[in-house]
Amino acid sequence: MLSSCLTTVKSLPLKKRLCFLLKLVCFVISVLIFCEFLIYYVVIFQCRWPELKGGAHMSNKETSTSVLKAIILADTHLLGEIKGHWLDKLRREWQMERSFQTALWFLQPDIVFILGDVFDEGKWSSPQSWADDVRRFRKMFKSPVSTELVVVVGNHDIGFHYEMTTYKVKRFEKVFNFTSGKLITRKGINFVIVNSVAMEGDGCAVCRTSEAKLVALSHKLNCSQQKPNHSNKRCSDVEKLPASEPILLQHYPLYRKSDAECSGEDSAPPEEKNIPFKEKYDVLSQEASQKLIWWFHPRLILSGHTHSACEVLHAGKIPEISVPSFSWRNRNNPSFIMGSITPTDFSLQKCFLPYESRVFTIYCAVGALLVILILAHFQLLTPPFYFAQRLISKHKAV
């Protein structure tokens, strides 16, 4: 049977075989272009900026000038030279680059926030490796002049508290213009950048400096809001800032016992939800969390670190959104947050990226289809079918 099949293949005209081969190549290339390029446009095209409660009563001109459009993502974890396999690195970075650049092209945000763990091995990187990681990051997450990029520090960028050094912090600050306790004000909206790794509370040099800046900024913001408990004398020499209640941006979430109360398709898996969180490792300590709430009375807290989504209400009124990882290495369904923000209001919407399992399903289905088409074209499926047909005919005759 095998020799007859080979004879059938050889008997096909060369021109016909080349034409068939060309069609297969075009088909494969089309599938690759869709799965590795066009799919990001198809998926992100479905995302829309959320509307504010008063959005229906605002004109287009008022909306465009007063509403800040922000994209928030977290935990990109660009692989390094120690643990990162070149193929895994190539795949993940291509996925994130295409997603990010497509989102910028479609959504045209005013500002993008990355909530820490930009790199996977920043805590170990040699100067040469660090420079290479930064170069790749700048290529992947380049943005037009009209879009501002703000990066928050995470434990994988400078190490956990016991690994954190002034050198690593300064190195990160130099590249990303990051400072803990830094205030970013856009369109009258106050964003407070927090180095949550330095909220250990043990009086380390980096911790003292970071907390001192946060306390000073807290005083400015509270004076600007003219709180009743602040006398005019204490606030007389303070630079006035917009009176908008701040939004905290940090890597570690505020203290919570676990992810047991978190819900949604991108929340933690059921087997992980009830695992207790460790203070100063998975979440901030209760003391540090309370400090941040006392100091700033934020209207919203945005954090990362857990790689899963969660929404928590602190003190019964302050929402915290844990943003899932942006990397397919950590999740099958990465996403980012889209926020429409004004000095007094905000509205958030999640934008999911392509599910990796669905992309693999497409590849597997296409692979199976190619095998069938090749066998059918060279008539390699015919003999078994004829054999089965003869068996059925003999059975009926008996």
TrEMBL record:
Localization in the cell: Endoplasmic reticulum-Golgi intermediate compartment membrane
Annotated TM spans: 20-43, 360-381
Domain (Calcineurin-like phosphoesterase): residue spans on this chain: 69-308
Primary subcellular site in the record, as a coarse category: endoplasmic reticulum
CDD domains: MPP_MPPE1 (cd08165)
Membrane topology classification: Multi-pass membrane protein
Cofactor: Mn(2+)
InterPro entries, per the entry: Calcineurin-like_PHP, Metallo-depent_PP-like, MPP_MPPE1, PGAP5/Cdc1/Ted1
One Gene Ontology term from the biological process aspect of the record: endoplasmic reticulum to Golgi vesicle-mediated transport
Function: Metallophosphoesterase that catalyzes the removal of a side-chain ethanolamine-phosphate (EtNP) from the second mannose of the GPI-anchor protein intermediate. Participates in the glycan remodeling steps of GPI-anchor maturation to allow an efficient transport of GPI-anchor proteins from the endoplasmic reticulum to the Golgi.
Protein known as: Metallophosphoesterase 1
